[in-house]
Amino acid sequence: MVSEHGGTARRGLTRTTDIVVVGHGALDRLVDGSLDAKLDRARRLGVNIWSEDKFLRHIGIGETLSPAHRTMPLSEIASRAGLDEQFAWHLALFNVIEQDEDGLFGFRDLVAAREAAGLAKDGAEEREIVASMAEVRRRRGAVPSQVHFTRGESGEIVLSLGDKQVGLDGQMQLDLPRADNPTVDELFEAAEDAELAGEWYAAERLYRKCADLDRSDPIIPFNLANVLREEGRNAEARLELQRAVKLDAKFAEAWYNLADLSQGEEDYPQAKSHLERALKIDGDYADALFNLGHVHYKLGELADAGVYWSRYLEFDHVSEWGKIARDGLRLCRVANQA
């Protein structure tokens, strides 16, 4: 469906990503605390971050936005509800509150945000609140105005109507990977977790299962290559990276990693070619600029090395790498004057 709108769907985040969609299945990531780390990287890259419902509406297959007079930005919703803006943003990401195409919210959203604030004042954790409210909304639709969220006798979040309280019927039992027949997305998330934990053997097995089920996604062989490199299996990693760029010729990070393997083998002409491919795709890829300067230096092409190190210093002149680039640039200028 995405391809019909001129786009390409991927499971991971690359330098060419335009939109990150946070699906309902990411609620468990919010609960375990790993979602924000992923979204922080997207923010640093300047990528748009959309909720699943907003994305589905954008491509014409989602439910119509509920009627409302929307005039309030997220900052106002947060302020008037007594929430910090990050908390309110989480509510929007999981469609507890609904923004229009201009990012504006209505009074119904303010009511929901105040419900969340009330739960927080009553001692509930933010992640538990967002997950509970999102699951109720997803499974039951909008909650009637006379129904409220509150905490039960054991501290669990429940719905209340007058003097009656109704449990969430296991709504907080988030869907976990099924041991008998997991989906590709479930396997991919498990592989990412294993990779993050340094469990290379488990990560490799899981990524290979993903690759057996989906041979169209270049992120899978790219991630598998990273794991293989950690295991010291560079030849196999190269094959996976070549598979990744065959699936997506504009995958700048894969070209960069291919160049890094070539540099490790001191095959500088090949590394140069791969880095040039990466920079043709993304001219502001700072790491590629630095490494291409280094490759030209190794090849004795000092004028070109100086050009790329000078470009790198536009992005970084304070880190250890920035110091190396400055020193290299100085050597190049001295050599060119000799």
Explain what the structure shows.
- It is built from 16 helices and five strands.
- The strands form two sheets. A three-stranded antiparallel sheet has the order 3-4-5. Strands 1-2 form a two-stranded parallel ribbon.
- The protein is elongated.
- It has two domains: 3-142, Multidrug-efflux Transporter Regulator, Chain: A, Domain 2 (Orthogonal Bundle), CATH 1.10.1660.10; 184-337, Serine Threonine Protein Phosphatase 5, Tetratricopeptide repeat.
- Helix 14 (286-298) runs antiparallel to helix 15 (302-313).
- By secondary structure, it is mainly alpha-helical.
Strand order of the largest sheet: 3-4-5
Strand content: 5-15%
Helix content: 55-70%
Q: What's the β-strand tally?
A: 5
Give the uncertain stretches in residue-range form: 170-179
The whole-angstrom Rg is 25 Å
CATH architecture of the largest domain: Alpha Horseshoe
Strand/helix succession: EHHEHHHHHEEEHHHHHHHHH
Query: What do we call the CATH topology of the largest domain?
Result: Serine Threonine Protein Phosphatase 5, Tetratricopeptide repeat
Q: Class of the largest domain in CATH?
A: Mainly Alpha
Q: What is the residue-averaged pLDDT?
A: 83
3D shape: elongated
Give me some keywords for this one.
338 residues; mainly alpha; Multidrug-efflux Transporter Regulator, Chain: A, Domain 2; Serine Threonine Protein Phosphatase 5, Tetratricopeptide repeat; two-stranded parallel sheet; 5 strands; 57% helix
Give the topology.
Layout: E1 19-22, H1 27-32, H2 35-44, E2 48-51, H3 52-58, H4 74-81, H5 85-93, H6 107-121, H7 126-140, E3 148-151, E4 157-161, E5 164-166, H8 184-196, H9 200-213, H10 219-230, H11 234-247, H12 252-264, H13 268-281, H14 286-298, H15 302-313, H16 320-337
Helix pairs in contact: 4-5, 4-6, 8-9, 9-10, 10-11, 11-12, 12-13, 13-14, 14-15, 14-16, 15-16
